[in-house]
Amino acid sequence: MKDVQQPLQDRVIKREKTAFTLANFGNIPIMTLIGAYLLIFYTDVVGLDPAAVATLFLITRIFDGLNDPIMGYVVDHLPRTKMGRFRSYLIIGAIVCSLNYILLWFGPLWAPSGKLAIAYITYILIGITFDMMDIPLNSLIPAMTDNEKERSSLSIIKGISYVVGAMIVSVGAPLILSNAENQITAYYIIIFGAVALVLVCSIVGALGVRERIQPSKHNEKYSIKDVLRIITLHPVLALFASTLLFGVSTAAGSSSNIYFFTYILNNRLELLSVVSMVSLIGLVPAMAMSGLIVEKFGKKRTFTFGLLVFGLGPLLRLLNITHIPLLMISSILTGIGSGIIITVMYSLQADNVDFVEHKTNFRAEGCIASINSFVVKAGQGLGSAIPGYILAATGYVPNAAQAETAKFGIVLNTIIFPAVLALLASVVFGLGYNLTREEITKMAEELRERRKK
Q1: Which residues, 6+ apart, have CB-to-CB distance to 167 below 8 Å?
Q2: What CATH number should be reported for the domain holding residue 341?
Q3: According to a count of CB atoms within 10 Å of the terminal CB, is the N or C end of the chain lower?
């Protein structure tokens, strides 16, 4: 694919890519820990009913569905500062979100009464405060460069940052939980350590990157009514729907894994860390090779293939749900799928920003990024809510030996439900996404000409 040569001063240099890596590290612990541990923390430590927690997750995600496009609109219309359109708001958002995050976990635990009400308030607020850091962060790639190779490089960096950051959390948290004197002490170490990581990485990362691509003077400011028009454009909607299904699939498996290793594999939490590391055998090569696969087959086919592999991998475990070698093979396959999905997804998102500008003359990084933010939070909410309802319906009892119906509910949450959603996502994207490589190249060239004029 032909690439337009950029002046040296407009290239994304190594130091800037390092800062971008840090900024993305700072985004990881918030939703990763919520997805993996908040459900069991609320049920087994705080003492809330699983069905009540599931309803909490579901209701607050409906609120977020209304909130995210509005937050994207707000970010796109915030005044430009000396640091650019997004970086200063990323720093402010990281500070506010971190304070909210502490209360989300420990507010219900510290309160003598009204625990569920505090959980509702802080969980609704995390939807808003996470947007304050997540939307500016996810707006950076299309603002940093319009060069296709640089965007692909930044997308890979973002994907690797997310994977490595999530891996650190996924390996470290179970080890802390299994070795601490009690659960509450373990959660204090995990959450306050996560907050320190969020603040340091987000602030240092935001200070180290540049925003090169600014809206043309002829770009229109879109209205709140135009948000629906942007979201329903064909490529935007296809990516949104498929990544939402993928997000729910990932979150359902993540929030249920600790139940599986506790109640199906008899408290073998150390295996949860091992599985996370084993998945790297598939994940790292897939991420490294994704650029070459995209170059040969295109982004659409590559992304669809990643979703298929991610969906088929867990189904192997149904041959014998307690067989550890099968569990490891399944983890490698889902690692391959996840590695492809994550690295290609953010490049597709940047292409959608250009597609929106080309079609509408709106520069809408915040709007497109808000869709990604919604996918992350809705995935976490729905991916934890539905398993919560299934646990309640199948007779789950916290901190006790489980009946066979409850064990089936755990297997349904951990294996079957995530696999079905991922396979459905591959169908939605494969049938719905209609941008070709040639159209993307032509579109980028036309936008460069517009900016020159």
Answers
A1: 276, 277, 280
A2: 1.20.1250.20
A3: C
